[in-house]
Design a protein that fits this description.
42% helix; 8 strands; 3-stranded antiparallel β-sheet; 193 residues; 5 helices; alpha+beta; single chain; elongated
Length: 193
C-alpha cells in the first residue's frame, strides 16, 4: 500500500467515528455510558480543564529559569594581609653626570634618576663624583661609580667582579652536566661484572 491510500483510509475511519459518536450528542441524548467512555472524556473537556492543560503546555514550552544566587563568603583568617616588601637584590651605579648648571644625572640599574624601589632611598642632593648616598634598611652607604650595593647583605662589590663571577659560575655547570651525561652513556655501553 502506498502512502496515499493509507492517508485516505485514516481519514475515512476518523470521519466515520466522529459521525457515529456525534449523532448521539446532536440528538440531545445524554447517556451515562457516553460520559464514562475515555474517548469522550478527552474530546469534551470543561473550560477549567482546558485552561489548566494550556497553562501546563505553556509552562513546558516556555519554562521560567530561576537564577540561583550563591553568596560567596570570604575565608577570614583573622589576621590582616600584609603586603610583601620587595627590595631589589642589587643597586648598581654605572654613571654620575654633573651638568654645568650644577644638576646631576645618576644612572642606577640602567635607569636615570630613579630609585629601583620605594624602599631604597637615594640622596640626589648630596651626590658627588665619588658616589651616591643610598639608604637601605636604615643604613646609608656611599656607592661609588662602577660599584654594586648588594642590598640583602649591605655590602659593596665592584660591578666587573660580579659579572666575572656570574660568567664563571655558569660555565662549570654546563661542562659538568656534559661530562656526567657522557659518563652515564659510557657506563650503559660497557657491561658490568
Amino acid at each position: 500500500m502506498n502512502n496515499y491510500c493509507l492517508k485516505k483510509m485514516t481519514r475515512v475511519f476518523i470521519a466515520s467515528f466522529l459521525l457515529a459518536n456525534s449523532s448521539a450528542v446532536l440528538s440531545g441524548q445524554t447517556d451515562a455510558s457516553f460520559a464514562q467512555e475515555p474517548a469522550f472524556k478527552t474530546l469534551f473537556l470543561s473550560k477549567q480543564t482546558r485552561d489548566k492543560i494550556d497553562q501546563q503546555r505553556q509552562a513546558y514550552l516556555h519554562p521560567v529559569i530561576e537564577k540561583k544566587v550563591k553568596k560567596i563568603t570570604p575565608k577570614v583568617s583573622g589576621k590582616p594581609r600584609v603586603k610583601r616588601v620587595y627590595i631589589p637584590p642589587k643597586v648598581e651605579v654605572s654613571a654620575v653626570i654633573i651638568k654645568p648648571d650644577g644638576s646631576t644625572l645618576i644612572r642606577v640599574n640602567d635607569r636615570y634618576n630613579r630609585s629601583p624601589s620605594k624602599h631604597i632611598k637615594m640622596d640626589f642632593m648630596h651626590t658627588t663624583s665619588e658616589g651616591v648616598p643610598v639608604t637601605v634598611k636604615g643604613k646609608t652607604k656611599v656607592v661609588p661609580v662602577g660599584s654594586t650595593l648588594l642590598t640583602r647583605q649591605v655590602k659593596l662589590v665592584k660591578t666587573y667582579k660580579l659579572d666575572q663571577q656570574a660568567k664563571k659560575a655558569a660555565l662549570p655547570k654546563t661542562v659538568q652536566k656534559a661530562v656526567k651525561t657522557r659518563l652515564e652513556q659510557v657506563q650503559i655501553l660497557t657491561p658490568k661484572e
